[in-house]
Amino acid sequence: MKDLDALIASMRPELQPGVYVFASLPHDAPLTGAGIVATFREREGLTVVMEEEAAKAAGIAPLFRAAWITLTVQSDLDAVGLTAAFARALGEAGISCNVMAAAYHDHIFVPADDATRAMNALLALQHRH
Q1: Which CATH class is domain 4-127?
Q2: Strand pairing partners for 94?
Q3: By the 8 A CB rule, do 100 and 38 touch?
Q4: Segment 26-32 long-range contacts (CB within 8 Å, at least 24 positions apart)
Q5: Residue 105, Cα to own-chain centre: how many angstroms?
Q6: Which GO molecular function, any one, fits this protein according to its record (predicted)?
């Protein structure tokens, strides 16, 4: 789907259970996959997003504690404006967001303590469209 108004009206944010952390590991760090939901290779190291309990068990220091919200609408990777719309709504609520677009859905990571406020801001945006 590419139509911005239709995307926003049907984005259906869903809060995933648990707390997730962003961490940076050396490029050669062994990864078992336990609790890892995303990785991104940067020049400085391997960024991982993983379940907080799995990070604790592995002795991995978190850089950021987050709640994970999935927009369950299936959006095209080349759709224009959706990220800007929800980032603006969260920004107006004073909530930072880290966004990952996957093949079928957008995933938003917000500060763990702001999960409820973030969901309310996203639902309000959805209902305005």
Answers
A1: alpha beta
A2: none
A3: yes
A4: none
A5: 10
A6: transferase activity
Residue with tokens 């917000």: 110
Record the pTM: 0.93
At 48-70, the pLDDT tens digits run 999 999 999 999 999 999 999 99
Structure tokens at 72: 């369950």
What pLDDT, on the 0 to 100 scale, is given for residue 2? 65
Cβ atoms of 67 and 114 within 8 Å: the answer is yes
Tokens of 53: 């309990």
For residue 84, the one-letter residue type is A
If one counts every other C-beta atom within 10 angstroms of the C-beta of residue 129, the result is: 13
Asked if 11 and 126 touch (Cβ cutoff 8 Å), the reply is yes
Angle formed by the axes of helices 82-92 and 115-127, nearest 10°: 120
